[in-house]
Write a structure and sequence with these properties.
232 residues; mainly alpha; 53% helix; globular
């Protein structure tokens, strides 16, 4: 009888662990790849014209490869809802910056985005205009991203718009470095971290609202409330 009692106890413990691990608020409930499904990812790309360069460049596989190899903590904030909100926020900002995965590079290439820096000096003949999912800009960001990723992006900034995995790595690098610290303050704080000087504080309310609309739409798709503070 003692042996049967022990087996029942062990079974109860195992069952409790399974329930906890799959509970709605537990971080183990869903992995990023199970949230960013092919349907979710392709649903964004479907809004871009067939002629868009990004239509074939940006892929879910490239995103997941960049995630697993360099930024496995993305989408792992705490509760399942917090994780989904971060994922929705990231893809809302990416969708806005790239026109739903249409653009791999900034349309206006007249600005070289080169500023004085002893640590990350501009390479001769190179421009650091927006490239990739979050339109990485400025030599200082290319240099810092390259240093973190083990890549020479100062001398080869074009890699951000020619290698899809590197492209997503730079976007995730910027997100985890500059945006992740304020994600808990609401979606509006992520917009401020990405393009605050240009759009926030009443400068371009239409663009701020456009970003927020994408975010709330993706939150709905992922089955999570968007929270508060959606503006900046």
């Amino acid at each position: 009888m003692a042996s049967l009692s022990i087996k029942k106890s062990l079974f109860s413990i195992l069952l409790a662990c399974i329930v906890f691990a799959t509970g709605p608020g537990n971080v183990m409930a869903q992995s990023v790849d199970s949230i960013v499904t092919p349907q979710f990812f392709d649903g964004i790309k479907n809004n871009a014209a067939a002629t868009c360069a990004g239509k074939s460049f940006y892929t879910r596989d490239a995103f997941l490869s960049a995630l697993s190899s360099s930024f496995p903590n993305f989408g792992q904030l705490g509760s399942a809802d917090d994780n989904k909100r971060e994922i929705a926020a990231f893809f809302a900002q990416v969708s806005h910056e790239t026109g739903s995965f249409c653009y791999t590079e900034e349309n206006d290439k007249s600005n070289t985005y080169c500023q004085s820096s002893t640590e990350y000096p501009c390479a001769a003949g190179k421009s650091y205009y927006g490239r990739g999912p979050l339109q990485l800009s400025w030599n200082t960001n290319y240099g810092a991203a390259g240093k973190a990723l083990g890549l020479d992006l100062l001398n080869n900034p074009e890699t951000v718009s020619t290698d899809p995995v590197v492209s997503f790595k730079t976007a995730l690098w910027y997100w985890m470095t500059a945006v992740r610290p304020v994600v808990g303050q609401g979606f509006g704080a992520t917009t401020r971290a990405i393009n605050g000087p240009v759009e926030c504080d009443g400068k371009k309310p239409d663009l701020v609202q456009a970003r927020a609309n994408l975010y709330t739409s993706y939150c709905t798709q992922l089955g999570v409330s968007p929270g508060t503070n959606l503006q900046c």
